């Protein structure tokens, strides 16, 4: 049995304004299908002899990750929470330590299939066949990576030079090479001996830990210390934050794969992309006769080779070529396709200017549902709130704001001080400043309501929680 380990960290700033710090690209539906990138990663495991996936993500994404796994039918998935980012070598070490601890004494070394949550693979059958070819190599003690057969001289990926052939599409790794310039990339493609480095792996958990011990014992020691002190919270595994913060940050390539003599590679031709930019998404998207990829309410005239995504309103283009136009409820990006790698510069400018558009969308997901900040001013804010059936917001209090709730549909159970009562469609209630209160949906349909906040301070940190079923402090 294979143990899928899905790494769902990262912020994907090059895909702003869709990808935000609190809602990054792995949780987005980027390819016009019904699944997010994470859900598509899970779906391509169907039909394989695989255990329930083990997920690794940032603590601030925990509820988003858990909800998407629940929607995928994996409600019991364990999720290791990273209190801070330390790159892929420590993340994989945490998973390997947990898998080896759970394995019975004398059992085979658990095979870890390490996947990134934000990759696109169009040919699932070819992907699964590649994994099958890698299994015997991993059983022999090899650390197997998957190399993508290049179809153009890409300068944005690292490459793997394949060595001695081990079997069908399987080779020893001769060396890893950094992202090349254009002339070097042309030579790699012409030689037929180089593969793109996908960042996907298959190896035994114990074998990985042995190699990490040999080449980066400092990383392994920090991870052992962090995972020796864990706390289970719902489906989440919380590790010791102070110990993990002391762990050096390094990628699995630098820490292990480039140093070990046990590296092997299986070549994979499966329509892979890491969708690292808007131009990369345009490359893999379906296009019309003019080379346009269009999503949402879009009208084009004399427009070619352009990616347009309209989230909340009509977007129209006239006489443009080779552009990226991304519209969300609170931001608009217009960029030349040849310059999309510089989108991260805009994100840094947003941070420097003290703005908030890099953090989250206007629509924010919570474990109980979602809210949309539809209007705001100096002393007021208006939100449209959706509470899932059976869900409940925390018992809380605000020091600086009062709230009016108007129910649009469904039924709310409101605790307002010492009183608890129902509020139904077209009814409203008022929560004074300093009043302990809570909101719950006791029904079987979504509860929709409008919340009008008023006061001297309206930030989300003006919440004193007394009780919360989702473990939030």
Word description of this protein:
The protein has 473 residues and is α/β, with parallel strands linked by helices. The chain has three domains: 1-271, Spore Coat Polysaccharide Biosynthesis Protein SpsA, Chain A, CATH 3.90.550; 276-351, no CATH class; 361-465, Jelly Rolls, CATH 2.60.120. The protein is 23% helix and 34% strand. The protein contains eleven helices and 30 strands. The strands form seven sheets. It has a six-stranded antiparallel sheet, with no helix packed on it. Helix 3 (88-102) packs across helix 6, helix 3 crosses helix 7 and helix 6 packs across helix 7 (217-227). The longest helix is centred in the first third of the chain and has 16 residues, at 124-139. The mean pLDDT is 94. Its cofactor is Co(2+). Residues 296-349 form the MannoseP isomerase/GMP-like beta-helix domain. Monomer. Its EC number is 2.7.7.13, 5.3.1.8.
């Amino acid at each position: 049995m294979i143990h899928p380990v899905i790494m769902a960290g990262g912020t994907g700033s090059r895909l702003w304004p869709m990808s935000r710090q609190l809602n990054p690209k792995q949780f987005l539906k980027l390819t016009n299908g019904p699944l997010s990138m994470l859900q598509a990663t899970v779906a391509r495991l169907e039909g394989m002899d695989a255990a329930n996936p083990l997920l690794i993500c940032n603590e601030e994404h925990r509820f988003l990750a858990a909800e998407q796994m629940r929607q995928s039918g994996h409600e019991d998935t364990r999720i290791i929470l990273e209190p801070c980012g330390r790159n892929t070598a420590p993340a994989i070490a945490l998973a390997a330590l947990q898998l080896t601890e759970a394995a019975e004494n004398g059992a085979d070394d658990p095979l870890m299939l390490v996947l990134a949550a934000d990759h696109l693979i169009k040919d699932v059958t070819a992907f699964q066949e590649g994994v099958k070819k890698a299994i015997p190599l991993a059983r022999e003690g090899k650390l197997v990576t998957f190399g993508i057969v290049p179809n153009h001289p890409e300068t944005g990926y690292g490459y793997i030079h394949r060595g001695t052939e081990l079997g069908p599409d399987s080779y020893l790794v001769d060396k890893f090479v950094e992202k090349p310039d254009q002339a070097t990339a042309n030579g790699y493609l012409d030689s037929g001996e180089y593969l793109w480095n996908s960042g996907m792996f298959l190896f035994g958990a114990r074998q990985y830990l042995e190699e990490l011990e040999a080449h980066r014992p400092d990383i392994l020691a920090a991870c052992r210390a962090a995972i020796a002190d864990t706390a289970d919270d719902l489906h989440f595994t919380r590790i010791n934050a102070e110990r993990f913060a002391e762990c050096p940050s390094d990628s699995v390539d630098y820490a292990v794969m480039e140093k070990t003599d046990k590296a092997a590679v299986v070549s994979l031709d499966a329509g892979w992309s890491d969708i690292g930019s808007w131009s990369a998404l345009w490359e893999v998207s379906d296009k019309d006769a003019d080379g346009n990829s269009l999503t949402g309410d879009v009208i084009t005239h004399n427009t070619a080779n352009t990616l347009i995504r309209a989230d909340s309103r009509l977007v129209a283009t006239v006489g443009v070529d080779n552009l990226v136009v991304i519209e969300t409820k609170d931001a608009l990006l217009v960029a030349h396709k040849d310059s999309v790698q510089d989108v991260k510069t805009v994100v840094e400018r947003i941070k420097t200017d003290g703005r908030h558009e890099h953090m989250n969308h206007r629509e924010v997901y919570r474990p109980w549902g979602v809210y949309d900040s539809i209007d705001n001013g100096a002393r007021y804010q208006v939100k449209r709130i959706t509470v899932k059936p059976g869900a409940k917001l925390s018992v809380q209090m605000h020091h600086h704001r009062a709230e009016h709730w108007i129910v649009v549909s469904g039924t709310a159970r409101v605790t307002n001080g010492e009183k608890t009562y129902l509020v139904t469609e077209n009814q409203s209630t008022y929560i004074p400043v300093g009043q302990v209160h809570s909101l719950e949906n006791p029904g079987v349909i979504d509860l929709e309501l409008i919340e009008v906040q008023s006061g001297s301070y309206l930030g989300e940190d003006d919440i004193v929680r007394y009780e919360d079923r989702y473990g939030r402090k």
